[in-house]
Structures are given as structure tokens and as C-alpha cells.
Design a protein that fits this description.
This protein is mainly α. It is 74% helix and 0% strand.
């Protein structure tokens, strides 16, 4: 319930910021809060279903992620695509973003094509918001492996310590990348998973702690 309440605060902040940036200029930081929550929740999910069989562990994890994400994403993409085609004579840029999001790649597509998140082209693209979901999906390809090989999902001795060290090292590299790229390539800092890894890792470390 506490996490749901924090999610509510985060999403309201984002909505207010998109509705009128002057009302809450830093409301977009709700997205960063979501990343931290995701790290916490995904670690909780892994702990609940510990396994000594790698194939069962990894296939079960991705099965749960697909069931949780894909149905709602498909409904959103199909319904919004129909609407955007009705009101936009040249919807190809938007539809390509939607298609990329189905494979967890819309953040990479926006990184390559977009003028930036805080621009008119992004504001008018109804699928821009899928970039953060793609960041999380890419994180899901890395983190379960870290949790497995550190022994954390198999109750190995000192596994919490090993996973914490891994997350701290990778998180430190990630925040250095974010700080480095932000002044020279804001799209890279904003859209790409390596420069956002540290935020999700904070949530993972919070749960482990």
C-alpha cells in the first residue's frame, strides 16, 4: 500500500507537469521515482520465487513480465494508433515509436530520432511516454542475471553482499555516464538504459538493505 501511495504521488506529479509545466516545473521527476520503485519491486519479485534451476528461474521471470506488461501495452498501442491515424495526416513517426515499444526499444528509437524529451515533437507524440517502460524492460535483461550469478536467488552465503557490490559498481558507472552525457548529449543521458541504470539500482539496493 505504501508503494502504491508513492506511485500515486509520482504519477500525479508527472500529469501536472505535462498539463502545465509552470504549476510543477520538476514534476517530471515522478518518472525517476518510478524507476526506483521498479528496482525495489523487481527485487521483491525475484526473492518471492527463488529457484535453483536457471531455466525455470529465467523463463518464469520473463513469463511474468510479459503477462504483466504486454496486454495493457497492446491495448494502449492499438487504440491510440487508431486515434492518431484519424487526426494526423503523417503519423508514421508516432507509429514507429509504438512499434519499437512492443520490443522494448522505443527509448533507443527516440534517442536516435527525437530532438529531445522536452520539445514540441515529443509532446505531440502519444507514444513518447513508452521510453521509460523500454528502459525498465532493458534492465530486466540484465538484473535477473546479476541476481542469479551472485547467488541472491539461490540463498547462497554472502549473496546479498555480492549483489550489492555489483549494483553499487554498475550504478556508480551509470551515474558517471549520466553526468558526463547530460551537458553534451541530453538525449543519451535521458533516454538510454545505461545512464538510467543507477536509479533502478537504487531501488534494488533499498530492498536488499
Amino acid at each position: 500500500k505504501e508503494l502504491d501511495g508513492l506511485r500515486a504521488v509520482a504519477v500525479i506529479a508527472v500529469i501536472i507537469n505535462h498539463f502545465n509545466g509552470d504549476l510543477l516545473p520538476n514534476g517530471y521527476l515522478g518518472v525517476d521515482i518510478f524507476f526506483v520503485i521498479s528496482g525495489y519491486v523487481i527485487t521483491l519479485s525475484l526473492v518471492k520465487r527463488k529457484s535453483n534451476n536457471f531455466s525455470d528461474y529465467i523463463l518464469g521471470f520473463y513469463e511474468r513480465r510479459i503477462k504483466r506488461i504486454l496486454p495493457l501495452l497492446l491495448i494502449f498501442i492499438v487504440s491510440t494508433s487508431i486515434l492518431i491515424c484519424m487526426i494526423n495526416a503523417y503519423p508514421i513517426f508516432h507509429l514507429r515509436t509504438a512499434f519499437a515499444s512492443l520490443f522494448g526499444l522505443s527509448n533507443i528509437y527516440l534517442f536516435q530520432i527525437s530532438d529531445g524529451y522536452f520539445t514540441a515533437s515529443s509532446d505531440l507524440n502519444p507514444f513518447t511516454n513508452t521510453w521509460s517502460l523500454s528502459v525498465e524492460e532493458q534492465f530486466y535483461f540484465v538484473y535477473p542475471l546479476l541476481a542469479w550469478f551472485s547467488g541472491y536467488t539461490r540463498n547462497k552465503k554472502n549473496s546479498s553482499k555480492y549483489l550489492s557490490i555489483l549494483l553499487s559498481v554498475l550504478g556508480s558507472i551509470s551515474i558517471i555516464l549520466f553526468i558526463y552525457y547530460y551537458p553534451i548529449n541530453q538525449n543519451a543521458a535521458y533516454f538510454l538504459m545505461p545512464s538510467r541504470f543507477w536509479e533502478i539500482a537504487l531501488g534494488c539496493l533499498a530492498f536488499i538493505g
